[in-house]
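User: Predict the structure for this protein chain, please.
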Amino acid sequence: MGNCFVGLVKSCIFAENLQNEVKGMKYITLPTSEVRRLSFYLAMEEYVARHLDKQDSFFLWQVEPSVIFGRNQVLENEVNVDYCRAHGIRLYRRKSGGGCVYADMDNLMWSFITSEENVNLAFNRFVNMVLLVLRKLGIEATGTTHNDVMIGDRKVCGTACYHLEGRSIVHSTMLYDTNMSHMLNAITPSREKLQKKGIESVRQRITLLKDYTSQSLDDVKALIRDTLCQGTRMLTDREVADIEQLEQIYLNNDFIKLIQ
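Assistant: Here is the predicted structure, written as structure tokens:
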């Protein structure tokens, strides 16, 4: 009983300290609600980091089936390009490091823009934000040294980060649900590897948030926003146009290195 009480007190202190840290963080919104290409949201977080006030900012986003791979990855080694083309899955490169990720409308993408220049501290703060939200959902989770978030021994959320002058950008994919077949086939080009590991093996290494909560994806989105942010900052039409211009960098084949 005593240990349970101590654990509860520590949990409350953790939540209070973190909520004090995120106090005043603005939620960035768009003037329209259409779903955009993944490249737009990468450009959006970069634009926010470069041009908006230096206070911490945050936003959530979702995309149609897409694969996003890291700054240093070789496309043809990480992505089954033929499968993606056959199934209408778009390919994008991000400016952060890390591995290859499949995303769709059942995933929840997080973007955190902070004035914290120490990347390790930015990572730590972000992971703690995720843990706080999960605790509010009644889910006990842990962070790893690789900045993943685990429920038990299964991964529910991966993160990546990169640094601009005076700013750090941390982004993440949270698995609320997903098309498991697309996830496996789109990011695993080797047939031998497919046959060896199979969908069940991948399913054993990851977990889906929907299996631990009765909350809908929209409910989870609302909880995240209410927990982490105070107030909103809506981008103007001019700012959106500037983001669309910046997006062209992410769409350039020289950047993507897509094999034609």
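The first strand starts at residue 26 and ends at 29.
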